[in-house]
Amino acid sequence: MSQLSTKIKLYCKANGVNTVDFTKDVKLLKQPDKDVVIDSWNLSIDEPTDEQLASYETAGNTAEATAGIDATRQTEYGSWQSQMEMIYKDQKDGTTTFKDHCDKVRSDNPKE
């Protein structure tokens, strides 16, 4: 089940609001022994209904899964300095170390 914040971001984006600040624009509240709910809504678009938010469940699951894969890939790619070193050595030596490294990270962490 996707998080409420993810569904809110998707709803907002679909309605022309590209960024949401969850400390100012939308505040969420974790109720004791219950789900997280919208506590306050300070955006120029209407607050979504439960049904509208539920319609973003599948897209929310996909977005969260993709974000996890992106985070893993970012870690496995290494620092930009190490990537630049691989590129430099590949150009100098005529090798494909950098390309091979990127292909492996992608194949080990597919998005589809």
Tag the structure with descriptive keywords.
two-stranded antiparallel sheet, 56% helix, elongated, mainly alpha, 112 residues, 5 helices
What is this structure, in a nutshell?
The chain has helices at 4-14, 50-54, 57-77, 80-93, 97-108; strands spanning 26-30, 36-41. It starts with a helix and ends with a helix.
Structure, described:
- With 112 residues, this protein is mainly α.
- It folds into two domains: 69 residues, no CATH class; 35 residues.
- Helix content is 56%, strand content 10%.
- It is built from five helices and two strands, in the order αββαααα.
- It has a two-stranded antiparallel ribbon with strand order 1-2.
- The longest helix has 21 residues.
- It starts with a helix and ends with a helix.
What's the structural blueprint in terms of helices and strands?
Layout: H1 4-14, E1 26-30, E2 36-41, H2 50-54, H3 57-77, H4 80-93, H5 97-108
Antiparallel strand pairs: 1-2
Tell me the distance between the termini: 19 Å
- Gyration radius, in Å: 20 Å
Structural class: mainly alpha
Give the helix level as a range of percent: 55-70%
The largest β sheet comes out as: 2 strands, antiparallel
* Dominant shape: elongated
**Which strand order does the major sheet show?**
1-2
User: What's the β-strand tally?
Assistant: 2
Number of domains: 2
* Topology as a string of helices (H) and strands (E): HEEHHHH
